[in-house]
Design a protein that fits this description.
Length: 505
């Protein structure tokens, strides 16, 4: 689809249990927190992510057929670019079209690795992708497209063992592509099985869906699910039945993910407009496409049901855009998650910066201004940027400006009580040798936070990140200059231990 369509519909158009164990708060911690007023410029916890799209080789690999070494080098370059900006999460598309960028017995190898659907690339990229992210203290979220079966409607082009070829009755041809029919229970079972397989075999931190559910309108023709509707629709209206189908899959995946590994998060990045106020009093003050009515994605239902851990609406429009004003939509989504356990991250249109879709995108500071708006809403827990390609090209210097104005300090991952976890033990045997601080590994720790104590001695480290200088995965830190430091341990979901104090020479 064209760039203008991408502007309207978001990146997809171009692609586009253990109960939580609370950490005990000591009297000292409480006194410190009371003495410190949180500085919104340095949030203690904030998700900062980037989408890495593989479909059509948008971000990685840069083209199909590259050798293993080149694929690895390109990926590491993306991660290092993320770390440079103090990001802390990557959302990597591991299943773009009912294919796999990992070794799977359920679906064939992706053509975006080798250029040929089903061709074995000679290695399993996923362990490497995850390990390299974790080395850099980046959460790894496995991004799946649930319903897109193939870019081409010609089934004969698919490998013989492709599910869409083996089960042609699962599919619907639409707009030149092939989709799985969301109305079929066997489709929901297959998608859930694919996701459960990945969660069980690989060390992922999250499972992620983007905005693709029923196909976006404008593809031509009618989505022909009449037979499934006649069989399963009962006395429902077609639109309600379709939304119900999506809701069932979301709930099913949510349950399966958490039954397999409770700490793994499940979230969705829906299209930025749920409904407009003109067609629903609960909608936003917008005049764009409605995800509820056009692609049958009812994000409010998922939030109310608690079948997602987070939503990351794609707010790919600038401030002042009449049909979909960023400010109006941020306010609406903050209200949608208020008083729920569902976290809110904002999908940011890094890919729009420097384009001519709207004069606002010619302003280097537009994205940074979005994050300033976010500070008004306590419900906003972070941002995810589309996409990694622009993280590397840095159009108009916009992402560097975001990093300078908003990410000058690292941030811990926001906690999710339902995902369990507990603070590891405080780092033991902490000592300094010259400018290097070291300590022994803490059982259950995946990373360690390092704070520099200011001359005033007032660290505020339990309140915000003003003194957070690093989050490291090894057991040492080399300071740029002498000083006093606090070291804490973090589990995989970033529950934080008490601090140990160390002074360098």
């Amino acid at each position: 689809m064209t760039t203008s369509a991408a502007y309207v519909f978001g990146p997809g158009a171009t692609e586009s249990p253990a109960a939580t164990k609370k950490t005990t708060t000591t009297a000292t911690d409480a006194a410190e927190a009371a003495a410190c007023k949180a500085d919104p410029r340095y949030p203690k916890r904030q998700l900062r992510g980037v989408w890495i799209a593989t479909v059509k080789n948008i971000d990685w690999p840069s083209r199909a057929g590259l050798g293993q070494a080149r694929q690895k080098a390109e990926y590491v370059k993306i991660l290092d670019s993320a770390v440079k900006r103090n990001l802390n999460a990557v959302f990597v598309q591991v299943r773009p079209t009912s294919d796999a960028l990992y070794r799977s017995s359920l679906e064939p190898w992706s053509q975006y690795l080798t250029g040929t659907p089903g061709k074995d690339p000679g290695w399993d990229p996923l362990p490497f992708l995850i390990e390299e992210a974790h080395k850099r203290n980046l959460e790894f979220h496995a991004w799946f497209n649930p319903y897109r079966a193939a870019e081409s409607a010609d089934v004969s082009k698919l490998p013989a063992d492709h599910p869409a070829r083996k089960h042609r009755d699962w599919t619907v041809k639409y707009g030149g592509g092939l989709y799985y029919n969301p109305g079929l229970p066997q489709v929901r079972e297959h998608v859930t099985k694919v996701i459960t397989d990945v969660v069980s075999r690989y060390d992922v931190d999250g499972v992620h869906f983007d905005d693709y559910f029923y196909p976006y309108p404008g593809g031509g023709g009618t989505f022909d699910d009449k037979a499934a509707f006649a069989k399963y629709g009962k006395d429902q209206k077609l639109a309600d039945w379709r939304r119900g189908n999506v809701n069932k899959l979301v709930a099913q995946v949510d349950q399966a993910v958490h039954d397999t590994k409770n700490y793994v998060k499940f979230g969705i990045s829906p299209f930025g407009i749920w409904r407009n106020k003109s067609n629903d009093p609960d909608g936003s003050a917008t005049a764009g496409m409605s995800a509820y009515d056009s692609i049958y994605a009812d994000a409010r239902a998922w939030i109310k049901a608690g079948t997602v851990d987070y939503v990351a609406p794609q707010l790919y429009w600038p401030r002042g855009f009449k049909a979909a004003d960023y400010k109006a939509l941020t306010s609406w989504w903050a209200g949608a998650v208020e008083d729920t356990d569902v976290q809110l991250y904002i999908g940011q249109a890094l890919y729009q910066v420097g384009t001519k879709t709207n004069p606002a995108w010619a302003r280097p500071g537009e994205l940074s201004a979005h994050l300033t708006i976010n500070q008004r809403y306590k419900q906003v827990d972070g941002d995810i940027y589309f996409s990694a390609k622009q993280l590397l090209t840095n159009p108009l210097g916009a992402i560097d400006l975001v990093a300078k104005e908003h990410y000058s300090r690292p941030a811990l991952i926001p906690l999710m009580d339902d995902r369990g976890g507990e603070a590891p033990a405080t780092p033991a045997d902490a000592k300094a040798a010259g400018s290097t601080v070291s300590w022994k590994p803490s059982d259950g720790a995946r990373a360690y936070a390092v704070y520099r104590v200011p001359k005033s001695g007032k660290t505020c480290h339990t309140t915000d990140a003003r003194n957070l200088v690093a989050v490291v995965t090894d057991t040492s830190y080399t300071a740029k200059e002498p000083g006093t430091f606090l070291i804490t341990s973090l589990d995989r979901t970033h529950h934080e231990s008490k601090a140990v104090k160390v002074k360098t020479g």
